[in-house]
Amino acid sequence: MDSSHEENKKEATEKDGMSTQADKNFLVPTAPFYKFVLTGGPCGGKTTALARLSCYLRERGFEVFTVPEAFSLLSVNGFSLEYFSVEGMPKHVQNSVMDLQISLEDSFERLLKARGKPGVILCDRGLMDGSAYMETEEWNKFLADRGLSSAEIREGRYNAVFHLVTAAEGAEQFYTLENNEVRSESPEEARKVDVLTRKAWVGHHNFIVVDNRSSFEGKLNKVVSATSKLVGLPTTMKSMNVKFLLRKIPDLNEFPEEIKYQIFEVDKIYLYDRDMNKGRTTANCIETYSFIRKRSHVGLDNEVLGTTYQVTTTKVYSDGKTIEEKRIITAREYNASYNTRDTSRNIIKQRRISFLYKTQSFNVHIYKQPIDNLFIANAQVAFSEDGEGNTEGKINGEEERSLPIVDVPPFLDVQRRLTDADKQYSSFSISLMEK
To answer: For the chain, which has fewer Cβ within 10 Å, the N-terminal or C-terminal residue?
Structure first.
């Protein structure tokens, strides 16, 4: 299925005489590896969530590294706000923070991959957080000077991003900075920072905002459940993706000024593997299939701003559950896998609009191939079945019981909510060619 993987394996084998087991593990990783970001405004529960996730994953067989926040490392080791009194200092600070963050993440990733066991890196903030403190044009120039793009350092590095909303928004009575010596924001400032940080990550394909509608324990449980789902562990998570059928393409001119959105062109290609379901299914797993995805971030003039690639393996179980294993890949791996595409299926082509509305992440899929005139909105929500929080959903003002809360934006023309029975609207079904 992945010829570049086989080439790496051959390269490692040819170097057998001079390669250690760690070298082979690093060159050709065989164990699953994930990198997650935990971010958010001050006093959102990030530190507690990192500790809870780290213990939870280790107890279930994962090797775990926690990458500390780069700016905090500078602050507790001598850096102070007085440095900003020097003209032009912000650019140098951002460069130092990014250098340190990249070095920490890449070093930890190398060690985990060389270890050769299932691994998870939990990042206390990620590279895009810096954009919350710079104007868009200034940030884009900053990245261009480093030869980078937002797409590369957003979805090109991380499997998922969890934004824990500050307690200053919805849980004001619990807002405190006593446990963080490098922060000093008032509740109003904390809410402002939280909004800017949310906007920084708009466009990531797995961007989950966890608000304060439930208790703090419920908030942590949602993060743990969502992470479990992403790494293939049993979970109480009922749904992370609620879908709506739209009547028409959203008019970007009708988006409120405060709504930041990103636009992507997506190719989704199902792969052919005659041995896919041989030896990979069990009594419970009844079907397995894979697809690759090319995701290009585009500007309003359709200029490509950056491209990322991913491979996903989906396992369907007899009890109706579906588990997806996702891996970020290189352009070389994507092109090699393209040659093994399933020619009995169409290549899916979409334009996607990503945005946040009331702390919830939305992606609108506008199909271009093999069909057009189909528009589906996906809302990513953190909803668990542990009884925590309000599970009454709002759909255009109408309440529905036992559903996660989804406040649908008024600028989307929703026809109806899609259910598990609407399988004809899945990409898997749409890809099938008529015979």
So the answer is: C
